[in-house]
Structure formats: C-alpha cells, structure tokens
Amino acid sequence: MDRFKAPAVISQRKRQKELHSPKLSCSYEIKFSNFVIFIMQRKMGKTRRMFLMELGRRKGFRVESELSDSVTHIVAENNSYLEVLDWLKGQAVGDSSRFELLDISWFTACMEAGRPVDSELKYHLMEQRQSPPLNVPELEMPAFTATKVSQYSCQRKTTLNNYNKKFTDAFEVMAENYEFKESEIFCLEFLRAASLLKSLPFPVTRMKDIQGLPCMGDQVRDIIEEIIEEGESSRVREVLNDERYKAFKQFTSVFGVGVKTSEKWYRMGLRTVEEVKADKTLKLSKMQKAGFLYYEDLVSCVSKAEADAVSLIVKNAVCTFLPDALVTITGGFRRGKKIGHDIDFLITSPGPGEDDELLHKVIDLWKRQQFGRDLRRYASHERKMVLDNHALYDRRKRIFLKAGSEEEIFAHLGLDYVEPWERNA
Questions:
Q1: In this predicted structure, what is the pLDDT of residue 134?
Q2: What residues have CB less than 8 Å from 245, skipping those under 6 apart?
Q3: Residues 219-225: contacts with CB within 8 Å, 24+ apart?
Q4: Homologous superfamily of the 161-240 domain (CATH)
Q5: Could you give the CA distance from residue 148 to residue 128 in angstroms, rounded to a whole number?
C-alpha cells in the first residue's frame, strides 16, 4: 500500500524544493518601495513577461511574480479595461478598485526614465463610454476597423506599398538607436510599431487614424503626433545628429562588427571607418578583416537581376552534387523587393540527410573555379592556348596537346605544379 503514496510524497518534496530553491534572478536594491507592480502575462507571453519583470527589478522597482494584496499597480499589454476586470474576477482578489490598472506604455516610460513617472490619465485603462456620432453621413464612416488589426505580423497582410514611410523611417532610426544602447524593450517597441504601420492600407494623417491600434505606445504616439503637426520629429533629428549614433552606424556597417566592438572603438576615441582602418594597433578578427577588405562590395546594393544571375550560379553548383535539389531565392527578393543588401537561398534535397556535406562541397567547387578561371586566363593571355573542360589547344601550333593529368597541363603551360590544397585563391 505504501507504493501508492509515493507520488504524493514526491509532489510534496518537489514543492518544498521549489519553495527553498534559489531564484534565477539576482537580488536588486528596491529604490521605489511605494510601487508594487504586477505584470499580466495574458496576451504577452511568458518569455516577454519574465524579461520585463527582470528589467523592472534591475531599475529598482518591486515587481511581484504573483498577484497579492501588496500589489499597487497592475500593468497589461493589449488588454482593455473590461478584459483586465474579467481576469481579476477569476483571481479571487476581492475589491479590484484598489489597483491602478495601467497600460504597458506606463511601464516602458518608467524604464526609460529610470524612476516612476506620474500615472497620468493617458496611461490608465478605463471603461470606454463613447456614443456613436449623430447625423454622420455614411460616406464619412471609415471602412477600416482598427480593432481588427492584430498585434502579430503573421496575422496581417503587408505589401511593399508602405503608405506611412515618413513614420516607419523615423521608427527604424529610433529602434536602431536603442539597439546601439542595448535597450531591447524600446528597440522592439519601435520595430513593432513600424511593422504595423507598414500594413495599413492608408496613410495616417491624424491621431484619430491610429486610435485602437495595438503596438502604439506612448513614445510612438508622441513621434507620430509631432510628425503630423511639424512634418518631422525633433527626437529623430537629435538621434541622427548624435555623435555616438553616427559612429555606431558606421562601425556596424562593417561585416563582423557588432555593438560591443563599436562601443570599444568609440571609447577609444574612434568615430569613422577610416579612423579604424588607419589605427594599426587594433587587433581585428578574421571576419572583421574580410569586412574591411570587401567593405565597398558588402555595403553596395544588389539588384533583382544580379540576384537572379547569382541564383543560376548557385543552382549549377548544387546540381553538380545533387541533380534533384531545389534552390529557391528567399528573403527580400522573394517578397518582391527590387533592391537588397544580400541574397538568401533555401536549398532542399529530395530526402533527409541526402548530403550533409553539400555546402562544403559547393564552396570547395567555387574555390577550385576561382583558381581554374585564372588558369584559363593565363593559358589564353600568356601562352596563346585554349583550356576548357575537355582539352588544351595550342592556337599557334594549331594542335591539341596531350594531357593525361593535371601535372601535364601545368607542364604544357610552363608552370610549376600547384597542389590542390594550395589553390585556395
């Protein structure tokens, strides 16, 4: 009979272990004890909630994992006032009026300021009591319903017709600036807002146009409002003129250079790519050396025609080893772009594990063709011969030269033999 009690004992031990096990997050000093925050997971997801909780604690806020009587502020994302109330009813917390129900934009504003900001009316979740306007002609009623726009890009259709480029360009500058500051939460805030505005089938011309849309945080709304009223954003202009932003923008344009390296170079007093290249004391990685060596090529744009031409080269090389393989252009060109900065390919073979070494074989083939192309060029220009995949022909003597091996071809050309492992040109 004792064996039937084992699961209960194990469960009890597990609970005790969980209660006494150390927390994953570090202990941070609580600077603002009057604010006890609870972040709702509903419509947010566990991973994002954990990230925001940890961020709040690092900033000195008391952030509770569980809803309790000590909580003063409840923060929600993409939840209406009524949705939060319905959720609270299921938590058996009694009187919910003691909580301040706030939008996530209040929390992000606190994180940016590094302290609590006033919970103004604009941050509060409130019951909407709006009556429909009277005597409004039917033609003036908008056909677009903001409440049907999803916060997830996979639930929206977004074409290349961006009616709100002046806003999305500004958001992408702000997102990049926060990325350089390693502030992920604000970077994502602007990227999500840009993604959403790109999906709208009309240009935003007034603040009413974004009413009810998700991903429209306080910072985002401020920039939209200023662009509508002034034609540009002063915050974006400040970023574009910021010395640190301009330096990081240049540094990260080099292949193999990220934010950490950019920060290191900036602290050294370097400000431009030219200054980095001129500094002989820097120890560059292999990728960074390649990034500087091919800098102009890597930062230049690729046209659709060039992408198609490269696609044929890739297909020919892959089919040398896997005749039935499929090579498909993906990324921006698959989405209809005419210009891009790189070309992405998806290579699929008929069966799983058909050739695990395929990529290595393709790269080795191209390395040989670099070398082989120069060999043919040397034969033509220097020896007046024609070398192809079938034979070696002497144009002056008008004869085919016998060659049973690579060594004999090199000998006919008057060259010292170069071993295959010495041909990584």
A1: 40
A2: 176, 177, 180, 239
A3: 219/105, 219/108, 219/109, 219/112, 219/174, 219/186, 219/189, 219/190, 220/171, 220/189, 220/190, 220/193, 223/167, 223/170, 223/171, 223/174, 224/167
A4: DNA polymerase beta, N-terminal domain-like (1.10.150.110)
A5: 17
* Cα gap 225→366, rounded to integer Å: 53
Total residue length of the chain: 425
Is CATH 3.40.50.2000 the classification given to domain 366-422?
no
Rounded to whole angstroms, the Cα distance separating 252 from 283 reads: 17
Residue 3 has what pLDDT? Answer: 38
Among candidate residues 357, 352, 344, 349, the one with its CA nearest the CA of residue 319:
349
Report, at the CATH architecture level, how domain 302-356 is classified.
2-Layer Sandwich (3.30)
As averages over each run of 10 residues, the pLDDT of the chain (425 residues) reads: 36 38 58 91 83 89 90 89 86 79 88 82 67 41 62 81 93 95 91 92 91 90 92 94 96 94 95 93 91 85 83 84 84 83 82 70 74 81 82 88 86 85 62
**Phi then psi for 37, rounded to 5 degrees?**
-105, 140
Tokens of 148: 């049907």
Which pairing describes strands 73-76 and 32-39: parallel, antiparallel, or unpaired?
parallel
pTM given for the model = 0.57
DSSP code for 280: T
At residue 238, the pLDDT reads 95
Predicted pLDDT of residue 15? 40
Residue-by-residue DSSP string for 58-90: HTTEEEESS--TT--EEEESS--HHHHHHHHHT
What are the sequence ranges of the domains in the chain?
A: 27-123, 161-240, 242-299, 302-356, 366-422
Q: Does domain 27-123 have CATH number 2.60.120.260?
A: no
